[in-house]
Design goal:
50% of the residues lie in helices and 2% in strands. The chain has 2 domains: 159 residues, Vanadium-containing Chloroperoxidase, domain 1 (Up-down Bundle); 229 residues, Vanadium-containing Chloroperoxidase, domain 2 (Orthogonal Bundle). 51% of the residues are buried. By secondary structure, the chain is mainly alpha-helical. It has 14 helices and 2 strands; from the N terminus they run ααααααααααααββαα. The chain has a two-stranded antiparallel ribbon.
């Protein structure tokens, strides 16, 4: 409880620092590409949710946090788009919405309603943030209209996700006994996580298995042998084979990978001075893809239930492969292994989706930015492209000692397939002959 209260204080301080100036236009105060990015509510609410999910005990251990990001950003997008009306809605299309309604107020109200519903313990802090942000918007009918749009959209999206299967209690997992079967991993031997997550209703995909990859390499294959020996040499704690750069990389990215990519998106949005509607669309596409990435890779993980490298190396005498050699004391460089099967790799899936969505907004893929590690406070790395960050985050899992290379190559394909599907089928521009005239009357 003390940790939650401390984080609430951090959230208050963070939000206070973010609001540094005020808008002078009470209509569509963030529609211009030159809008003051310190006021961009999409970035601010994304930051707020990152603070929450990083708070120990705030996130249910059986509900993946990507669900919260997808719900919040879908609500922000639909709220803003019901005013902007340049793209197709994700889910909610209202009638009688004035084009003069405040987009920022709509985004604030939508995000607040979602987070207050999902994280009721943070209600007081979220209320304070909403009040603070709304103070930056001139009072009047347009502000009030925006607030009503945001609240109505949030209620509709929350209602649509209310029975999506995310609240089902996962049953105990039964470990297999055959060579290659996933086992709980040393040194802490945790229970498997998110065993039922593939049954959660996707946000965009038709079904969890829509892009399910084929099986991993056979344990006696040359591909498996190469993967085994690579991670055994490079991923061991205090590896003599890994370079200092590789060892650093393995530790640097050893956090919740979707958090890194949301922060990369924040940097891109602020640095490019993206408009409020486009910011809302980017973060919605990004987090819809991430949420479905997780549903899809858990479908594959618990279909193939491949053992992790630490298990494989400690039990190499059982795999019927004469070219893999047992090391009964081997441990990964990062110490603990994520408690789920190895194939495919989550970092690879999410990093591929993240890079593809960002490149769809910034096609040249030449964007210099810094990334701060979630698990190495104050440590930064600089990248010149989204592709470079994707590649390093993906390969880091070998240097961390928690994945085989085939987990990662397959994961990258899966992430790109999902992001490509989301980009092609959701939040698209409206057809030119579609009615965009709307209604400039007050919201009824």
């Amino acid at each position: 409880m003390l940790k939650v209260l401390l984080t609430l204080s951090l959230l208050c301080a963070s939000l206070t620092a973010q609001v540094t100036s005020s808008s002078t236009d009470g209509t569509n105060e963030s529609t211009s590409g030159a809008a003051n990015q310190s006021l961009n509510p999409v970035v601010q609410w994304n930051r707020a949710l990152l603070v929450i999910v990083r708070t120990p005990g705030a996130q249910s251990p059986t509900v993946h946090p990507t669900r919260s990001f997808a719900i919040m950003h879908a609500a922000i997008y639909d709220a803003v788009n019901n005013i902007d009306r340049t793209h197709r809605p994700y889910l909610v299309k209202l009638t009688g919405v004035s084009r003069k309604a405040s987009q920022a107020a709509a985004a604030d109200a939508a995000a607040h309603a979602v987070l207050a519903a999902l994280y009721p313990d943070f209600r007081g802090t979220l209320d304070a943030q909403l009040e603070q942000l709304l103070e930056e918007i001139p009072d009047g009918v347009h502000k009030n209209q925006g607030i009503r749009v945001g609240a109505e959209v949030a209620d509709a999206i929350l209602d649509a996700r209310n029975s999506d299967g995310s609240s089902v209690e996962p049953p105990p997992f039964v470990f297999g006994l055959a060579p290659g079967d996933y086992q709980s991993t040393p040194p802490n031997f945790p229970n498997p996580q998110f065993t039922e997550w593939s049954r959660v209703t996707p946000f965009a995909l038709e079904r969890a298995s829509q892009f399910r990859p084929g099986p991993p390499p056979e344990l006696t294959s040359d591909a498996y042998t190469q993967d085994f020996n690579e991670v055994k040499a490079l991923g061991i704690a205090n590896s003599a084979a890994a370079t200092p750069e590789q060892a650093l990389t393995g530790h640097f990215w050893n956090g919740a990978i979707q958090n890194y990519w949301n922060e990369i998106a924040q940097t891109a949005v602020v640095g490019s001075r993206l408009s409020l509607p486009e910011s809302a669309r980017l973060f919605a596409l990004l987090n819809l893809a991430f949420a479905d990435d997780v549903i899809a890779f858990y479908d594959a993980k618990y279909t193939y239930i491949l053992w992790r490298p630490v298990t494989a190396i400690r039990a190499a005498n059982t795999d019927n492969n004469p070219d893999t050699v047992i090391d009964p004391n081997w441990l990964p460089a990062v110490g603990k292994t994520t408690p789920d099967p190895s194939y495919p790799g989550a970092h690879a899936v999410i990093s591929a989706s993240g890079a593809l969505v960002l490149k769809s907004f910034f096609p040249r893929d030449h964007f210099s930015f810094k990334v701060t590690s979630e698990v190495m406070p104050g440590v930064e790395r600089t990248f010149d492209s989204f592709s470079a960050a994707r590649d390093e985050a993906t390969l880091s899992r070998i240097f961390a000692g928690v994945h085989f290379r085939s987990d990662l190559t397959t994961g990258r394909d899966l992430g790109e397939d999902i992001a490509d599907f989301v980009l092609k089928h959701f939040l698209q521009s409206r057809d030119r002959d579609e009615d965009l005239t709307g209604n400039d009357n007050d919201l009824l």
